[in-house]
Automatic annotation (TrEMBL):
Subunit structure: Homodimer.
Name by which UniProt lists this protein: Carbon monoxide dehydrogenase
Organism whose genome encodes this protein: Methanofollis fontis
Binding site for [4Fe-4S] cluster 2: 79, 82, 87, 100
Enzyme Commission identifier(s): 1.2.7.4
Amino acid sequence: MEQKKGTYIRERIACTALERAKLSLMNPAVIEAKAEERTIDETAKPLLKLSLEEGIETVWDRFEQQQPPCRFCASGVSCNRCAMGPCRIIPEHNRLRGVCGADADLIVARNLLDMIATGAAAHSDHGREIVETLHKTATGEAAGYMISDPGKLRRIAGEYGIDGAGRDDLSVAADVSLAMLEEYGTIKNEICFTRRAPDATRQVWDEAGIMPRSVDREIVEAMHRVQMGVGADYANILVHGLRTSLGDGWGGSLMATDTSDILFGTPDLNTSHVNLAVLKDDRVNIALHGHNPVLSEMVVRAAGEPEMLDLAREAGADGINLVGLCCTGNELLMRKGIPQAGNHLNQELIIATGALEVMIIDYQCIFPSLPRTASCYHTRIVSTSPKSRVPGSLYFPFYPESALETAREIVRLGIEAFPERDPARVLIPGQPVEAMTGFSVEAIGRHFGGFSPLVDAIAEGSVLGVAGVVGCNNPKVRHDEGHVTLTRELIRRGILVAETGCAAIAAGKAGLLRPEAADMAAPGLANVCRAFGIPPVLHMGSCVDCSRILVLAAGLAREIGVGIHRLPIAGAAPEWYSQKAVSIASYFVASGVYTVLGVMPKITGSPAVVDLLTRGLDGLVHATFAVEPDPVRAADLIEAHIKEKRSGLGI
Ligand code: XCC
Ligand code: SF4
């Protein structure tokens, strides 16, 4: 169906908040208590109270409405895959198999493989769009984009065996982008970037039969295996999940990261600000939400143009203030120092500030209900991806060929909305917190002078080990508390923390991305941080940039001369919700990194699956999952694991 540019998808939504407020009429003490129990983000609390008072529905309200959850779904033993079902396993009633004969183990494993494949597909499809943009840039179809990191382009050309000597950047980029696009369906039976992993790790994959053959192939095969009547052995299904996830981590996500670096610049250390207070009451505020930097980079350019600033002044504003949300925000924060307004559970509250003119969304992690929230304010929600049209939003389809032009139109929309802002309803609570970001692997290498100083610090024990704390927010966990408590505990124990995604944003809001946060770290780690002028928590980027953590691990492993599984490192996702996070956790484990989840996956209906994931995988990939909702106990697990790995290395 053709959707005209600049028009509403379906129709504009009417605000129903007041009716809801009348329905609820909550007493102030209850509102106060709810805000406290829902978040530890001090800038979020006043807005949460406001939304409760005014009946502006949020994710927490919907979460409450959904309680209690179906216990079959929650434990993974419901199946809705085919038309003979739906089926549930209810041992008490002697219902031990679905109509087709699938038992609890199979149903749980199939559901989990489905999640992994979905997450891997999301990351990889995002990656493909960026690689396509690189190709269009190379062939001159995407005016406005350019090669920002030619050095990285040529290093990657080298990995593909592309001879760049005597050729200009664009012609090399044409070959590199085609080689990357080919990875999605390659018949070479191996993804090129898996060669970045140390030999010992690649050997583990070969022996386990999980070397990813191409990005798409593993995802398609996963979908094939969950079709009724294909995969019937839960273990065989889960092992394919590992293979699928490796195609994400070392394939689709890594290509997303590296191609974004080539196009927009490899992040380097910079300082910016984080939390909802980065909105400015005298500016046109535009938030960029989602995951793909291809559009947002152009919005940054458009918003800086003198004509736009003139227009903003004519509309009575002092300028244009761009802020980020979630991972599009992380991409901009890492590369451009654009302030980061918040993470997943902040996305509705930023609208409740009453000071947001436009929220531009691309895709992933965007609540479909955002236009309902915006309907009670002057805020425009702008959908930009043909694959993520959100009813009630304005549609400005975005294509690399006409990127800058579209970006300008959206910025103008924000300027036009500014006079409609109601100053009486503006609430921008608190002050922004400073945050140092930009820790790409390249920047870390440059800043430390190679990997050896970090390896030395680990060897002599001033740094006990490294933990990757990543992933989302989830209303099942008090907003940010899982991330912040775990991160504080880890640095207190001398463990250097690398973060991405919403975890990194939580750390930023809590002040853990400031060099002064070294004061909260164990003395040895604190000294290393002070010597290098860095915080004990390194912001390494967006969700797809979890691939940077893999590359960092590979670099440390090569430096020591071991497989990744022998390093004193661990992963954690304290507040995960997304299928993408399941794929990330799976490729961490498949790469040899012990990973602790703070939210229980839907697997408890199969003790066999639980046992395989938390113990059995050790025999296959030398790493396992653990689940520990208490962040202090999660830190205990990680510390014990790191110490064990240290003694394995004799340090
Ligand atoms: Fe989404 Fe990437 Fe999760 Fe945050 S962390 S809720 S996936 S924005 Ni990746
Ligand atoms: Fe039921 Fe089997 Fe169909 Fe699932 S695949 S819905 S368990 S019959």
